[in-house]
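Please check what follows.
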Amino acid sequence: MIREIAAYQVQYGGRLRVVGFISTGEGSYGDVRTLKLAAQRADAVANALKQARVAADRVTASATSDGAPANDARFQRVEVFLDD
């Protein structure tokens, strides 16, 4: 998936915004530790995109919470957005 995203960005341009999500709903820790993990996941994806030939100034990484249930791994994710 990383190679496909990188190839698309290189061919068509735009900026990639990589966002790591954490759960802050019932049963979650909702603290700095979990936000740091989400940021590390986003950084790992951003670094992989850079290694796949996306220019460093075209990729940003951040972390946020979504209020989803804590024990559902689907909500502990990284999403990549292509912005103009």
Observations:
- Strands lie at 15-22, 59-65, 78-83.
- The longest strand covers residues 15-22.
